[in-house]
Amino acid sequence: MGSDDTSAPGAATRADAGRESATRARTRRAILDAAVSVLSADHTASLGDVAEAAGVGRTTVHRYFPERSDLLAAIGADVRDRVAAATARARLDEGPAPEAMERLCLEFFELGDRLLLLYDVPQFITWSGIEQETPADAALLGLLRRGQKEGTLDAGADAEWLQDVMWSLLYAAWLQARDRATPKHTALSLCLRSLRKAVAP
Known about the structure:
Elements: H1 2-41, H2 47-54, H3 58-64, H4 68-89, H5 97-109, H6 112-120, H7 135-150, H8 159-179, H9 184-199
Helix pairs in contact: 1-2, 1-6, 2-3, 4-7, 5-7, 5-9, 7-8, 8-9
């Protein structure tokens, strides 16, 4: 009994720390999500604009991201994490390469608002993570080379070229949905149709 009483304050402290950590994680996520929404609409939006959209004070945003560059770097890292998770969900090692490639496009298409920021916001050009090859990049190139070796993808083009073609078609589909009010499922269908023709052997 005495042992339980002694440990109670420590347990309470750990529980409080856990709640604080969870609260901080939720606040950080709210800021990042708001930043994506705000910057998608206005690339010049300020940290104050992001704070208003997130429903927090500007000082709160500055506690998490002291400078605009810190926020952009956090968005970039978050996007890379999401791309990695999407790549894992696409199961690139399973089945024919063209089908795996289409699964990957389906996953990536849902990340359009975030990935467009990396293409469209000039400040991301100076982010150190933008040019680094990631495990997701390597997995895609491995898939493309497998398809070329198996004869299911165009072996007359470099795998890096096919990779760029896929990203270019995704970008076109995102713009089609965003700027021309094309239904998302239609834009995605156009993307996949063009991709099948572009990478066919």
